[in-house]
Design a protein that fits this description.
The chain is of the alpha+beta class and 324 residues long. The protein has 2 domains: 247 residues, Beta Polymerase, domain 2; 62 residues, Up-down Bundle (Methane Monooxygenase Hydroxylase, Chain G, domain 1), CATH 1.20.58.340. It has 10 helices and 7 strands. A 7-stranded mixed beta sheet has the order 2-1-3-7-6-5-4, sandwiched between helices. α6 runs antiparallel to α7. The protein is rod-shaped.
């Protein structure tokens, strides 16, 4: 069924006879009136909205779908429930959140998204087995969709965790990487955005599992409620990864500050060594006519003896103080 079930197609489930039929979208309205449960996958365009109108979805719900393309939402309408789950797609360190709209009504559920969806593809590969083994109502598809979304989040979190590990190595090993702070900002923002997407999914699942509605079978709600725990863990793990990234940056900044302090310390030592020498050079570089040492035969030698003794004394003091 996975190859057949694509955008613009629908499936009718007969739970009594344990039968699945691949049907056209134009037949969904008739099949739902006959008592079948139908799942349709629609495009986010006028043809998809026309199918929703055909099965009786009210205009207010359709308007919310049209105007909400970038964040999670859960609304219980007069004729259907509109729920938006955010699928996470990682490209390098860039995170893209793709909304998947769920429209749940009497004997039907529609999924709508732009382009390919790994979450929908995962459901297509597993729904038949669950239908024949344990499904008793259309609520099993909700469980399948949320379960696939959680699997997608786990995969995404794994990719982001690898990026955090890679960033740690870059921060510690490569101290002259000029792009590292830009990459750090992108990764940190992606982790925060990902965590917010999980939180939005958690709220939606919580609403679907606890709020009574004629569109969701009560027998399916306990199964949805169980999905809240892995979402909570994923949100916590995403927060932890962001904290690790932040601590790594703090460690890097500490190491950089320490190295800067070492350089400054060496410069201070060199300055302190040359400071008395500069003083003597300045004194004997003055153009006063009567400086007694100018006529002294051993003045030059005495200057160098004094300079060497002074520098050696400074080094010995610094060495004893363990400043060098």
């Amino acid at each position: 069924m996975m190859a057949k079930f694509d955008v613009g197609r629908a499936i009718a489930f007969d739970f009594n006879a344990k039968k699945i039929d691949d049907i056209a979208l134009s037949d969904v309205s008739r099949r739902t009136r006959e008592g079948f449960f139908c799942w349709g996958h629609l495009s986010l365009n006028e043809s998809g909205y026309a199918v929703l109108r055909d099965v009786g979805v009210d205009a207010e719900t359709i308007d919310r779908i049209v105007n909400n393309q970038g964040h999670g939402v859960l609304r219980f309408g007069r004729s259907a429930i509109h729920c938006t789950l955010l699928e996470a797609v990682v490209h390098g360190r860039d995170l893209t959140l793709k909304p998947i709209h769920l429209i749940i009504g009497h004997n039907f559920i529609f999924t709508m998204c732009n382009g390919h969806s790994d979450v929908i593809a995962e459901v297509c590969g597993s729904y038949e087995e669950d239908f024949y083994q344990r499904a008793q109502s259309g609520g099993f598809l909700l469980f399948e969709l949320v379960d696939s979304l959680i699997y997608d989040y786990r995969q995404t979190l794994g990719d982001l965790a690898l990026d955090v590990e890679s960033m740690q190595k870059r921060l510690i090993q490569n101290h002259e990487d000029k792009d590292i702070f830009d990459d750090f900002s992108i990764l940190s923002a992606s982790l925060l955005e990902f965590r917010n997407a999980i939180a939005a999914a958690r709220e939606s699942v919580d609403g679907l599992s606890n709020r009574r509605s004629s569109f969701i079978q009560e027998s399916a709600q306990p199964f949805l409620e169980r999905q809240a725990l892995p979402l909570d863990r994923l949100a916590g793990d995403a927060t932890t990864e962001r904290a690790i990234l932040s601590e790594t940056l703090n460690l890097y900044m500490g190491m950089t500050s320490h190295k800067t302090n070492l350089v400054i310390n060496r410069l201070v030592i060199i300055s302190m060594v040359f400071l008395p020498l500069n003083f003597f050079a300045a004194v004997y570089g003055m153009n006063f006519k009567y400086i007694p040492e100018f006529e002294w035969r051993f003045g030059y030698l005495a200057f160098w003896c004094l300079a060497i003794t002074l520098v050696s004394g400074i080094f010995l003091v610094f060495k004893r103080k363990k400043w060098i």
